[in-house]
Amino acid sequence: MTTFVPEPHLLDSPRGRDWAPAPVSAPRPAGADEVPATADVVIVGAGPAGLATASALWHLGVHDVVLLDRDGRPCGRFFDRIDTLKQRVLRSPYEHHPGVEGYRDCELLDFARLNWSRLTPVERREIRMAQAGHRSVVPVDVFEAYCRHVATLHHVDERTWRADVRGVRPTADAVTVHADGVSVVAPYAILCLGEERRAAPSDWWEGDSVPPGVSYWDEPVPEDAEHLTVIGAGLSAAHLIANALSDGKRVHWIVRAAEERYQCADVNASFFRAEGRARFDGTSWEDRLTLMGGQRRASVMFEFRPRMQAAEADGRLIVHRGRAVTGLLPERAGRVAVRLSDGERVVTDHAVLALGTAVSTGDRLLPAGMTAARDGWPDLDEKTLAFRNAPRVFAVGAAAGMVLGPAARNIDGHRVATARVATAVAVGLAQSSGRRSTDGRVMAGV
């Protein structure tokens, strides 16, 4: 059987190109730098999920929105992480984007075609692939420019403030969001928290702090490290390895599984369609756990395979397959030893942990027990994605995985979740104000 392996040219897509400004640009009004004390909706997190949610609410007439984000820029932290990895393309195809469906918005594929002259021949080929219904890969540069376009068009920039949220306290008729000495009270709050890096097991080293010579995937790698060891089997690990090889470093790659996994998407594409999500409807909790466990496994884009195989063949990359890490120990001259399950020790200048991510469920923000977490997943209403124990608080993003399936953590899954949440919020606001449009549509906050 012949296996199609795409060429790795897309991995070198340009970054930092100039893009045409969005058609609407309205800076925040003078004197409006302080976070408002009240709003109709507070969105916690301004990543792709927060951007999609705010944009959908804007179309439903909900304009009194406050987005609180630790970075203070729509999708800012998302792209900072990407640039730390020197990532040039997204795994998501062109049909996956944070824009709003059902309205006359410019979608990601439209935006790329409008900027045809700025694209490389390889990138243009991907657009043709997308138009023909085949797998396509989106350059980070295109996606970032599109996110800026969406944020400006829906006035998300104007409604985003830098703040580190410390707590979300719901009552029977409102939600108070506490952040950095300020509080915002609103009828509804939407948690778009994304995922955080997965911490190493507590027994890998002594003490609570990461030992010298060890870092995580979203931290810069020391330039003077000539010998790098990467632990993990996912896309972040692949970027770290590719960067190190490009810099002339010698790399050890430790993969716990018997072999590295190469595949186009991180989950089966069927879960991005209605029929795939329907596999979750009516199934037991145990069946859903099984499906999630089978899909949320680390894998690498096919585009990396030719480079990885060539580097392994000439000895620049040494892959330790089927080997679990049992500890990281400091060595002389600032080096570190990675201890493997079979007793082998890999001594390296620097070790990078690319152990994946963990879902942010909201348990650190909501009062104890309110998420009603089970097996690490919050208890959400199946139709609205509201927390059952806090019906004025909703979840968009990876936290909705046990309702929407594996696609919940993906950019397109954010749109599916947003459609449910934004509609529920707009209906609730309209009912409280008693207003509807003449054609029966919800008109809230206008």
Automatic annotation (TrEMBL):
<feature type="compositionally biased region" description="Basic and acidic residues">
    <location>
        <begin position="9"/>
        <end position="18"/>
    </location>
</feature>
<feature type="region of interest" description="Disordered">
    <location>
        <begin position="1"/>
        <end position="32"/>
    </location>
</feature>
<dbReference type="Pfam" id="PF01494">
    <property type="entry name" value="FAD_binding_3"/>
</dbReference>
<feature type="domain" description="FAD-binding">
    <location>
        <begin position="39"/>
        <end position="90"/>
    </location>
</feature>
<protein>
    <submittedName>
        <fullName>FAD/NAD(P)-binding protein</fullName>
    </submittedName>
</protein>
<dbReference type="InterPro" id="IPR002938">
    <property type="entry name" value="FAD-bd"/>
</dbReference>
<dbReference type="InterPro" id="IPR036188">
    <property type="entry name" value="FAD/NAD-bd_sf"/>
</dbReference>
